[in-house]
Request: fold
Amino acid sequence: MLCAISGEAPQNPVASTKSGNVFERRLIEAYISENGKDPVTGEELAIHDLVELKSSRTVRPRPPTLTSIPSLLSVFQSEWDALALETYTLRQHLTQTRQELSRALYEHDAAVRVIARISKERDEAREALSKISVNGGPSGNGDAMQVDGLELSVALANKVKATQEKLSKTRRKRTIPDDWVTSETIQQLTPLHTTKTLFDGSRTISLDSEGDLSLIGGSEGKAGIFSIKQDKLVQEFELDGSVTDALWMGNKVAFSTSTGSVQIFENGVESSKFVGHAGEVTALALHPSTEILASVGVDKSYIFYDLTSSKQALQISTDCALTTAQFHPDGHLFAVGGLDGQIKVFDVITCANAANFDEEGPLQAISFSENGTWLASVVRGSSTVSIWDLRKSTQIKVIETGGQIVAARWDYTGQFLATAGPAGITIQQYSKAAKEWSEPSKIAEPGVDIAWGLKAQTLVALNEGTLTVIGSR
Reply:
């Protein structure tokens, strides 16, 4: 019977009731007082878990002093016991360290192999992707891989060309309708009616061609159509996320959401859904032909959708997160504004970068004038509107409104430019005869978005989920 610690026959043997191992009492009690565990199994062990074993032993005489040989032998025995206990502990620690090192080396080797495999698969995927050249895009179910197209399909390109040819011919000769709003009427505009809160967190509004039905969406994934004449919601929609933009498209409506989806409804039923953006969709734009819808997002890309076939036409990546967008009135150009403070103008058919205009901060809004040559832009947090001449590629006017601007909209004739912000609404007018700007109206009605009504006789402002109709009495 040997001690499990010293390996020698114990003078005062005890056994553990948990592991059954035999120890020298003084050694195991010293180990328990220091570690509280069984030195062999590592289990929790207390002194009362030890059972004394009866065995015959030789009674040693009491050592007289350290000067005698027996007393020195006793001291040497005590030192040997301490050394044996320490050696046993060190062996245990060494074994445990070896096991941990072996496991760490195995995990490191496995991680290196996984990284090498994934890197190889990534490189193969990139090589395969670089060899793909397509003009079309995936369908609107969002399941197919997104591949950047090079240009529009032939059918859509022909539609863009035909639309440009038709609209550009008549644009210069187009006269102001007889029943269009005048400067005198603009000066008399005042808030007429404010609705109750429709949708919390609303930040976009779109009016139908008759100026009655207002499309509005909120931050809780809900949207609706509000009839100004009936003063009530006539239809509601459930969406995937917060509404970031909304558009009328004839008898259809389109919404973009914070989850990256674009949803289209017809007669209250979802007819198409696109999930092409990796992140929030920030703005929508409708082509003058009404057959192409565009969206931009924080993923630095813009997407064209073929509304006839309900398919994604192409997706183009840029170098900056995009915040706003609009088609040129003739339909051959597409402008986007980004967080880098740059307005990029692209050719719709080839997607080539046709022009760039540098602003002084992230773009809040852009709006093409119906005269076909001017573009208005607003920088986030700014109180000014910049007017750019597309023919000269220069900034020709900076208009100070006296308050922060969130939205800017031209009217159909290109005479009036309405702006909205927390401080109120302003209407700027350009006189073609006098070739000068004026501000015929300033209304103390805050708004986060604004839209022109029928014949520009009214304005509809959106603020904190409520609509305010502005007109003359």
Remarks:
- Confidence is low (pLDDT under 50) at residues 132-149.
- The first helix runs from residue 25 to 35.
- Helices lie at 25-35, 69-130, 154-171, 183-187.
